[in-house]
Design goal:
single chain; 430 residues; alpha/beta; Immunoglobulin-like; Collagenase (Catalytic Domain); 3 domains; six-stranded mixed beta sheet; four-stranded mixed beta sheet; 16 strands; disordered N terminus
C-alpha cells in the first residue's frame, strides 16, 4: 500500500512539474511563424516571412523538448538565458520532396511553410533546420523573437470561418486537435462537405490504433467556401478558383494533389483549435498527398476516397513512409538512397534494423522474408523487399498494409505501433 501511494505521489509530481515547465516559459497563446523555403538542388535557404499570434494553444504541453521522430526538419524554441530547448517539433516539407526531382536541377523555386509554437513569455531564439532524407543539414537559421514585438500580427479579432465539431472528446489542452477543411466546395455545397468530412472522420477512427485512442482526439470540420466548385487539374487544362489554391500534377505527377498556399491555410483557421490538417478536395479525380506535420490533402468523390484519406493521414500524422514501389521511373525516383537508415519507422535498408521492427519479429523469421499469397498471412510481420518507391534494397514490414495497398483493410502492426507512439507522445508524459 505504501508503494502504491508513493507511485501516486510521484505521478502527481511529474504531471505538476510538466505543467509548471509549460507555464514557466509560455503563455496560453499560439505563435505562428511563416517561412519561405527557397533554392535548388545545389543551394537551399530559409527566409522568415511573418510572425502572428492568437489566443489559445492547442498543441502539446508535455514532452516539450524532444520529438517522437526525426522528420526532415526541426524547429526549436530556445531559452536565451539558459540555452535550453524549451519546445521542439519535427516536420517534412514539399520543398524537400521537390529537391530530389529533375526540375530542382534546372530552376530555383520557393515554397511556403508555417509552424505553430507556444507563445513565449520572454525573448527566445527560434532555430529551424532542414535535413535531407539522409539526415544531412541542408539549411538552417536562428532568429530572435520578443513577445513584445509590435510587428507580431495579432489575429485575435479576425473573423473565424464557420465550423462544426464532428468529435469532441475533451479540451484542446488534453486532446489532439484535427481540422478537416473544405477545398473546392462552394457555399451551396457545404452540406456535401459536411457529409464528406463525417465520412473521413469515421473512416480514420475505424482503423487501429486510432479506434482505441478515439477519446484522445477532437475533430472539427471547417466550412471554408470556394468561389468555384472542384479543384484545379492542370493535366486536363482545368484551373479553378478555390479557397486554398490546390492542384493536381504536383511535380508533374498526375495524381499528386497539393497546395503551396500554406500561409493561406493557416489564415483560414484563425480562431479554431487545431494541430493537424486534413483538406478535402471536392473532386472525383484520383489522388492526394500527405506531408508529415504539414497536411493531408485528398479527393472526396473518388471511389478510393476512404482508403486514400486514411493512407495520407498515415503520412501527415503518423510520419509513415509509402510502402509501395514502382518498376518504372516516377517523380519519387531518388527520394531514398541505400547506405543509410530512413527515419520513417515502416521502411528499412537494414543498415540499422535494430531501430525499426526487429524486436517484433518471430525469432524464426528469415531476413529478408519471402512474400506469401496466403490471405491470412499477408499482414504477418516480416522483412519484405520493396518499399519507399524502390524495388531493391528497401524493405517493408508486411505483404500488404494501408501504407501500400488500397485493398488493405488495416495498418500493419509496425505502422500501428508507430502511430500509437505519436498519439501517446502527444497525450501521455514520458
Amino acid at each position: 500500500m505504501k508503494y502504491i501511494f508513493t507511485l501516486v505521489l510521484a505521478l502527481i509530481a511529474t504531471i505538476t512539474a510538466s505543467a509548471q515547465a509549460f507555464d514557466d516559459y509560455f503563455s496560453n497563446r499560439t505563435l505562428r511563424i511563416d517561412y519561405i523555403f527557397t533554392g535548388n538542388v545545389e543551394q537551399q535557404m530559409i527566409a522568415l516571412d511573418e510572425l502572428a499570434s492568437e489566443e489559445g494553444w492547442a498543441g502539446r504541453r508535455i514532452n516539450l523538448d524532444s520529438v517522437p521522430v526525426r522528420g526532415n526538419g526541426d524547429v526549436k524554441v530556445i531559452d536565451i538565458e539558459s540555452g535550453n530547448t524549451i519546445y521542439r517539433t519535427s516536420f517534412s516539407s514539399l520543398f524537400q520532396e521537390w529537391l530530389v526531382t529533375d526540375e530542382a536541377t534546372q530552376v530555383t523555386k520557393s515554397f511556403e511553410a508555417t509552424f505553430l509554437v507556444p507563445f513565449p513569455k520572454k525573448d527566445v531564439f527560434i532555430e529551424i533546420t532542414l535535413l535531407s532524407n539522409e539526415g544531412v543539414k541542408q539549411a538552417s537559421m536562428r532568429h530572435r523573437v520578443s513577445p513584445d514585438d509590435k510587428l507580431i500580427r495579432n489575429m485575435d479579432k479576425r473573423e473565424t470561418a464557420p465550423y462544426e465539431y464532428l468529435l469532441k472528446s475533451g479540451s484542446a489542452e488534453k486532446c489532439i486537435d484535427v481540422a478537416i477543411i473544405a477545398e473546392g466546395y462552394t457555399e451551396a455545397e457545404m452540406d456535401t462537405f459536411m457529409k464528406d468530412a463525417r465520412t473521413a472522420c469515421d473512416e480514420i477512427f475505424a482503423y487501429e490504433p486510432f479506434a482505441s485512442h478515439k477519446d484522445k482526439f477532437n475533430v472539427v470540420a471547417v466550412k471554408l467556401a470556394s468561389k468555384q466548385s472542384d479543384v484545379s487539374v492542370p493535366q486536363l487544362n482545368s484551373w479553378r478558383e478555390t479557397a486554398l489554391n490546390s492542384n493536381f500534377h504536383t511535380f508533374y505527377s498526375p495524381r499528386y494533389l497539393t497546395t503551396n498556399s500554406v500561409h493561406l491555410i493557416h489564415d483560414a483557421l484563425v480562431g479554431i483549435d487545431y494541430e493537424h490538417l486534413i483538406i478535402l478536395a471536392n473532386t472525383d479525380t484520383y489522388g492526394g498527398g500527405g506531408i508529415y506535420n504539414s497536411y493531408t490533402l485528398t479527393t472526396a468523390h473518388n471511389p478510393y476516397f476512404k482508403p486514400v484519406v486514411v493512407h495520407e493521414f498515415g503520412h501527415s500524422f503518423g510520419a509513415l513512409a509509402d510502402e509501395y514501389f514502382y518498376e518504372q521511373e516516377d517523380h519519387t525516383e531518388g527520394t531514398y538512397k541505400l547506405g543509410y537508415e530512413p527515419w520513417e519507422q515502416n521502411i528499412t535498408t537494414l543498415v540499422d534494423f535494430d531501430s525499426k521492427w526487429k524486436d517484433m519479429l518471430d525469432k524464426n523469421t528469415p531476413i529478408p522474408t519471402e512474400p506469401t499469397d496466403k490471405r491470412k498471412e499477408r499482414y504477418t510481420i516480416g522483412v519484405y523487399e520493396g518499399g519507399g518507391y524502390m524495388t531493391k534494397g528497401m524493405y517493408r514490414p508486411a505483404v500488404i498494409c494501408r501504407m501500400r495497398d488500397n485493398v488493405a483493410t488495416q495498418f500493419c502492426d509496425v505502422c500501428q505501433r508507430a502511430i500509437e507512439r505519436i498519439i501517446l507522445y502527444n497525450t501521455v508524459e514520458e
